[in-house]
Amino acid sequence: MNNLGTLKFGPAGYPAEAKGNLERVFQILSEADLDALEYAAVYGLRMSEEKAISIGKAAKKTNITMSMHAPYYISLASKREDVRERSRERLIKALKFAPLMGVKRIVFHAGGYSGRSPIEAYRLILDSLQEVWNTAGHHGNGAFLAPEIAGKLKAFGSVEEIIRICEDVEGCIPTIDWAHMYARRQGEIEGKEDYAKILGIFEDRLGEKFTKNMHFHASGIIYTKAGEKAHRPLDGKWGPDLLPLAEIIREGGYKPTFISETPDSLRGALYIKYLFEELEKAKQ
Ligand SMILES: [Zn+2]
Q1: Which of 12, 86, 213, 273 is a plausible cystine mate for 173, CB 3.0–4.6 Å?
Q2: Distances (CA, A) of 144 to 49, 74, 139, 216, 239
Q3: Pick from 142, 108, 143: which is nearest to 128 by CA?
Q4: CA gap 42, 281 in Å, rounded
Q5: Facing residues of 105 across strands?
Q6: Cα(283) to centroid of ligand 1, in Å?
Q7: 8-283: what CATH class?
Q8: Distance from residue 27's CA to the centre of ligand 1 (Å)
Q9: Separation of 284 CA from ligand 1 center, angstroms?
Q10: What is the pLDDT of residues 15-61, one digit of tens each?
């Protein structure tokens, strides 16, 4: 474990350096003194149970906390019932695979509004997630469904929507993607106050469900008026600036898991960790 208590840092997806070799993945994370990995099932969870079990074992052996990014192709408010059904099945499969892989958080995007009003979309998404949770929640062995703040303004996933769905569905916790948040707010996250205000909203509404399961994504980002355009590195000219967030987290004693979604996700994870280490040094 690092010297930052139970703060955890890791990449989204296997580090490129591992060239897909499972043992190398966990070896690289261990050597880099990282503690988390978000398995990328973004194009579908296509693996055998044996493979899932071997991932879980490798993670356990190296003390890496696992999460999973569920397939992008989930659209719980789709106009087509067959698409909604397949979307639910993808989440159910993720819940069934989670304990094999040691996964505790299944990050996903609920989808777009599909031409519906936001409230109509909300009701459909809520019905679907309640159905998924009632059917398969127990398979997850403690794994949560973790809907993510969306980067595009036309996608389901505003702060209010994510908080409400987490209030309404027992098995849901929020994933705060700070890059998406920044894109949605058109760059209006500047200092500690802005970060504190946002965290305060989640904490007031969700309480320990939020503070005990804080799951964050981070990267730099470029955006347009429609929101997210592309992820960028953190240690460059792109916002958001994570230093004020790191300060708030230290002061508040929060213990989030940070997953880097930068193009070189290993480097991004190390950068976030470095910010916290520097703050720790400055205190001494
Ligand atoms: Zn994300």
Answers
A1: 213
A2: 20, 17, 11, 14, 29
A3: 108
A4: 37
A5: 67, 144
A6: 31
A7: alpha beta
A8: 24
A9: 33
A10: 999 998 999 999 999 999 999 999 998 888 889 999 999 999 999 99
